[in-house]
Write a structure and sequence with these properties.
The protein has 115 residues and is α/β, with parallel strands linked by helices. It has helices at 14-23, 36-45, 74-80, 97-113; strands at residues 3-4, 9-10, 29-32, 54-57, 69-71, 82-84.
């Protein structure tokens, strides 16, 4: 999840990242080791429900199978493909890791479609 676990603060630019993904036609699923109900509460509390297509427990056997993940678990990024981010342990308004991940995904999508 894109949240500082101690302060319940989203990683900076999380809503912008989700909006850009949705605007580009992607589905957005959010998962956490805290479980699906925890994810639903956090997504709702931060007003992100309209951009989220599903909430899940972080499980290596998750369905639907992701085609690109943004996660702080390097094993899962290597398994599914995606973008590894550092753990978000403290509030840092200068953090741009989510936007960098989205830019990478959108750049890969542009290459695949020839746009």
């Amino acid at each position: 999840m894109f949240v500082d676990q101690h302060a319940n603060v989203l990683r900076p630019r999380a809503s912008e990242a989700m909006l850009r993904l949705k605007a580009a036609g992607h589905q957005v699923f959010v998962w956490s080791a805290g479980g699906a109900e925890y994810v639903k509460r956090v997504v709702a509390a931060h007003g992100l429900t309209e951009w989220v297509d599903g909430c899940f427990d972080k499980d290596p056997r998750v369905k639907p199978y992701p085609d690109f993940i943004i996660d702080d678990d390097l094993y899962l990024v290597q398994k599914y493909g995606g973008h590894h981010v550092s753990q978000y342990k403290r509030v840092n308004e200068d953090d741009r890791e989510l936007l960098e991940a989205v830019e990478r995904l959108l750049g890969v999508a542009d290459l695949a479609t020839g746009d």
